[in-house]
Amino acid sequence: MRLRSFWFLGLIAVPAAMILFWMGASDLNFFAKPNQIAVIEIRGLIDDAQETQKALKKYREDDNVKAILVRIESPGGGIGPSQEIVRELRRTSKEKPVVASLGGIAASGGYYIASAANRIIANPGTITGSIGVILSFPNLKELFDKVGYYTNVIKSGPFKDVGNPGREMTPEERALLQETIDEAYGQFVKDVALGRNLPEEKVRQIADGRIILGETAQKLGLVDALGNFQDAVDAAASLGKIEGKPEVIYHKKKKRSLLDYLLGSEAGESLSYFLNGSANFLRYQSPFFP
């Protein structure tokens, strides 16, 4: 009886061990061929850079990956997260080629990220550009007056409640915020000029917040070529010196939240962005997605 039990457990344990080994080897890219192009997708509002940074580092250190393709479908987002991704892209592009593929919209922070790639490919109708910084506060004073809603504010300094929706903004507050906007705008222009190898003055001429379609962006030097996702894959293969057909692998996204399932991915991300009270109130963001 004991012998039968031993053989029965063995019949179960051996296949289970093989399955676990296969799964682990798959995660470690054990059976991969050294001709891979890794695709990292950036979708929706840019309010968190951690996952993208980890993916870039992972594929940068993977010898099987010869090039990285960043697929962007984003109207922009927080300045801090956008800058973190750009920094990691620059670090990566020094070791292996990075191609940015712009989808339907890659504006403001979306384009800012793309500018750090070695090569940018957009569709002729891609909504891009929108180089600038935006900061908005609601003014609900008249509404509050009508309903009799008032707030008592106790603060440590004159600017601590800047943007209070229950009152008018003071000239001093507006001047301070404009100074902050100008500083962030200067960083945007400087980084785009650096990434695209363009004079800062030339970038400033079109960095007035205007949206630009892909075809015009190419003429202005903001985009290298016009094409779709497959064209971007071909460009990545060429820059990565891949012989034959490349193996395209996709970065596994984090699990979607319940809010994403209920409202849809982008809607969930957008609502979460505001409900979480994100500190990224200064945004590289297109007016197409207020």
UniProtKB/TrEMBL annotation:
Residues 92-241 form the Peptidase S49 domain. The chain crosses the membrane at residues 6-25. The keyword Transmembrane applies. GO terms for biological process: proteolysis. InterPro entries: ClpP/crotonase-like_dom_sf (IPR029045), Pept_S49_SppA (IPR004635), Peptidase_S49 (IPR002142), S49_SppA_C (IPR047272). This is Multidrug transporter. Belongs to the peptidase S49 family. It comes from Desulforhabdus amnigena. Keywords: Hydrolase, Membrane, Protease, Serine protease, Transmembrane, Transmembrane helix. GO terms for molecular function: serine-type peptidase activity. Coiled coil: none annotated. Gene3D superfamilies: 2-enoyl-CoA Hydratase, Chain A, domain 1, 6.20.330.10. CDD domains: S49_Sppa_N_C. The lineage of its organism: Bacteria, Pseudomonadati, Thermodesulfobacteriota, Syntrophobacteria, Syntrophobacterales. Pfam families: Peptidase_S49.
